[in-house]
Specification:
The complex is a heterodimer of chains A (463) and B (270). Chain A is of the alpha/beta class. Helix content of chain A is 33%, strand content 20%. In chain A, strands 7-6-5-8-1-9-21-2-23 form a 9-stranded mixed β-sheet, with helices on both faces. In chain A, helix 8 packs antiparallel against helix 9, helix 8 packs parallel to helix 10 and helix 9 runs antiparallel to helix 10. Chain A is globular. Chain B has 270 residues and is α/β, with parallel strands linked by helices. Chain B has a domain of 178 residues: HUPs (Rossmann fold, 3-Layer(aba) Sandwich), CATH 3.40.50.620. Chain B is built from 8 helices and 8 strands. In chain B, helix 1 crosses helix 2 and helix 6 packs antiparallel against helix 7. Classes of the chains: A alpha/beta (463), B alpha/beta (270). Chains A and B meet through strand 4 of A and helix 8 of B.
Chain lengths: 463, 270
């Protein structure tokens, strides 16, 4: 006797950092029968992510439907505006309501599990289980009482990706176990009651790509283990599909693409070499552990450059009237960075903040406005990078303020790409043209008959 | 009875109840203002002579002033003082700095949690008196006066009866130990007002020198002073009556933040 199938209003399955090109490769190689079936029933397409291209920013844009300049999150870490301490991002920093909240506000039910950045979880009409940044189950769950159930089934907030440094086999096993437990818990909630919005996030695809992508794409014996693990994750997707009615509207989404790392490039060190960042002389304990009284610009991951601006940074030394000149000079120095061993440039282009953060539409230039308003007008922009460096293929831009060498190769094998995210839509209208991650929230809300006010993505599409 | 009398009376009742239920008891003394107040109350509860030991977890990174204070009070009060250290983790470690090779969370785990686990096992302890307060941190608001921990120090906050009419579940199950929190109902200001009333000795780091003072103390490498001119007890109390910043603001990184930083570092985001 078959189990009763649920039919949520919209089902979202997040496959973090699964590139569109890899998804197609998995389907072609027979490693992803569940995705293959969905792609045949719906539409699989390549999708653009946001700048800066990192999960914290991209999923927040997914959840809010707006550019980073509106939701206010620009990376996993940021400078505490009161000084030069590093803070970790959280929902406390996000300036917009998240999809599950918007669904709740409309009187509908929402479930969300493990989506970055939903820690600490916000109250919703339903359940929100926070992302991998949650310190423990009690703090991950809203309502907190759900922690007891999660603990009882061995739910894990995150896989231990650092295992990859000690044992690849151990990491692959951990990825399998964590994903299986998460899907088991999700199925419990799926069966518990009807849902209007049900989002399960699988972070493990991102971890696999970060630590194993290079070797996987190089082929050989190891590649088989990688692809087997991908097949296992596809099997977990199949479990979710088996639990819902066949005509359930759904999205399978990734937030960015991946490509193999050739070298990690230490932008922080490059800014030190060029005299923009000046170290204090003591041990460097954080990416912001420089001498503010002599530093004119500094870097944070990924490729974010900040001007140490007087009146904005508490120890800022660059006068607002020098701001543009400093940005231009830093841009020139960034474009100068070359990998001498390979004879290759490292930075493809440098975007100014108004080119990617501005709320008016997709990646368009910002309207002209006085410098002072742009820099100081809204605290959201005060935390935004002044420049973002986009790397040439294979150069992963790190901070590395205290690194001895500009380039290094570590155990990390994969880096994010902006234009190779994946969107698979079934049972609802897919974006007609080139898709953007910003389109997802209005699409989902549109399907649920909820107005999507003031979002940057378009809901209009064609099946 | 004024407010401080009520606070004191309830705490002393809990301390006596704890000892009545469990003789394998120790008082965990971090040498900060809260556990020093707890020590004062425990001495009052037993008329000056503590019938159980005082346990201090020495991370080797405490302020020198704290260690001097500890040793002077131990002599003055005739305490049975147990100093516990995780010697294995400390072997070869650079003095005065967080342990190398991991984040601050790893350091706290090795030098505090594991050292405490070792001491509990070595001395056969079944219950600990701690000076935590509900107003310190969100998670502590969920605590009970009698709070069991399993062998892995896990706390199941769902499995806690309400503590109405001074009825406490004061017995723990096999394999676990009981944590008893006699100061749970005190606020930071209550502590300082009581310190003033009773003239309880405290570490001088709490009082301003050159425009800075510590509002919360622990390991020297992980504490930062706050800007303050409060150089006397009265001035500290006046400052706290109007402050809007949190007590632990001077702790450079709380454990939670340290946890997430460590996570991001492992993933190459730091």
């Amino acid at each position: 006797m078959g189990a009763v199938r649920q039919k949520p209003g919209v089902l979202v399955i997040g496959l973090d950092g699964l590139p569109f090109t890899l998804a197609r490769q998995l389907i072609a190689g027979g490693y992803a029968p569940a995705l293959a079936r969905l792609a045949a029933e719906g539409r699989l397409q390549q999708m653009d992510s946001v700048v800066p291209t990192v999960s914290a920013v991209a999923w927040t844009s997914f959840l809010t439907g707006v550019q980073p300049g509106k939701h206010g999150l620009y990376g996993f870490v940021f400078r505490n505006p009161a000084g030069y301490d590093i803070e970790v991002c959280s929902t406390r920093v996000i300036r917009r309501k998240l999809l599950p909240e918007l669904v709740s506000d409309a009187g509908r039910t929402a479930f969300s599990m493990n989506v970055p950045v939903t820690s600490p979880p916000r109250p919703v009409n339903g359940i929100m289980i926070g992302c991998f940044l949650s310190p423990d189950l009690e703090k991950a769950a809203w309502p907190a009482e759900e922690a007891a159930y999660l603990r009882s089934v061995g739910y894990r907030i995150d896989t231990d990706a650092a295992l990859a440094r000690r044992s690849t086999a151990g990491m692959l096993e951990d990825v399998r176990r964590t994903t299986e437990r998460r899907v088991t818990a999700a199925l419990h909630y799926l069966a518990a009651r009807p849902w209007d919005y049900f989002h399960v996030h699988i972070m493990e695809t991102d971890r696999l790509n970060h630590f194993l992508l290079g070797r996987a794409l190089a082929g050989g014996g190891f590649a088989a283990d990688f692809f087997d693990c991908c097949r296992y994750i596809d099997g977990q997707v199949a479990r979710l599909l088996d639990a819902v009615a066949e005509d359930t509207p759904l999205l399978v989404v990734s937030d960015h693409g991946f490509e193999p790392i050739r070298q990690e490039a230490q932008l922080g060190r490059w800014l030190v070499e060029r005299g923009w960042t000046v170290l204090g002389g003591g041990p460097v304990r954080s990416p912001l552990d420089f001498d503010p009284s002599r530093t004119r610009a500094y870097a944070l991951i990924p490729g974010r450059i900040y001007v140490n601006l007087r009146g904005r940074e508490p120890g800022g030394i660059v006068a607002p009237e020098e701001y543009e000149a400093v940005r231009e000079a830093v841009t020139r120095d960034l474009l100068d960075l070359r990998d001498a061993a390979a004879g290759a440039p490292v930075i493809r282009r440098v975007l100014r903040r108004e080119e990617f953060l501005w709320p008016a539409g997709r990646l368009g230039p910002c309207p002209d406005m006085p410098l002072r308003d742009r820099l100081f007008g809204d605290p959201v922009y005060a935390l935004a990078p002044d420049l973002v460096a986009e790397p040439c293929p294979g150069y992963d831009l790190k901070m590395g303020l205290a690194k001895q060498a500009l380039f290094e190769k570590t155990e990390l094998e994969g880096m994010h790409t902006r234009d190779d995210a994946m969107l698979l839509v079934r049972g609802m209208a897919a974006p007609a043209g080139r898709a953007s991650i910003l389109d997802c929230a209005p699409m989902i809300l549109g399907r649920l008959g909820i107005a999507a006010a003031d979002m940057d993505g378009g809901a209009e599409g064609a099946a | 009875m004024d407010r401080l009398d009520e606070l004191e009376s309830k705490s002393i009742y809990i301390i006596r109840e704890a000892y009545a239920q469990c003789r394998k008891l120790a008082l965990l003394w971090s040498i900060g203002k809260d556990s020093s107040t707890l020590l004062w109350l425990a001495r009052k509860a037993f008329l000056g002579q503590l019938p159980f030991p005082v346990l201090h977890i020495d991370t080797g990174r405490k302020f020198r002033a704290m260690i001097e204070f500890r040793d002077a009070r131990a002599r003055e009060f005739g305490l049975r003082l147990i100093v516990a250290r995780n010697d294995e983790a400390l072997a070869g470690a650079e003095p005065g700095k967080p342990l190398a090779g991991g984040g601050k969370l790893d350091c706290c785990t090795a030098l505090k949690t594991q050292a405490l686990q070792q001491a509990i096992a070595r001395h056969g302890l079944k219950a600990l008196l701690l000076g935590i307060r509900r107003d310190e941190h969100g998670i502590r608001a969920k605590e009970r006066y009698f709070s069991p921990r399993d062998e892995n120090f896990q706390w199941n906050y769902k499995n806690q009866p309400p503590e109405l009419w001074d009825q406490y579940r004061s017995r723990s199950e096999e394999g676990s130990h009981m944590r008893i929190h006699p100061l749970l109902h005190w606020s930071e200001l209550d502590i300082w007002r009581y310190v003033r009333r009773e003239n309880i000795p405290t570490v001088p780091l709490y009082f301003a020198r050159n425009g800075k003072r510590y509002r919360s103390i622990g390991c020297e490498c992980c504490c930062a002073p706050i800007d303050s001119a409060a150089d006397t007890l009265d001035a500290v109390i006046r400052e706290l009556e109007t402050t809007t910043t949190s007590e632990r603001a001077g702790r450079a990184q709380d454990k939670e933040n340290a946890y997430t930083m460590q996570k991001l570092r492992a993933l190459g985001y730091m």
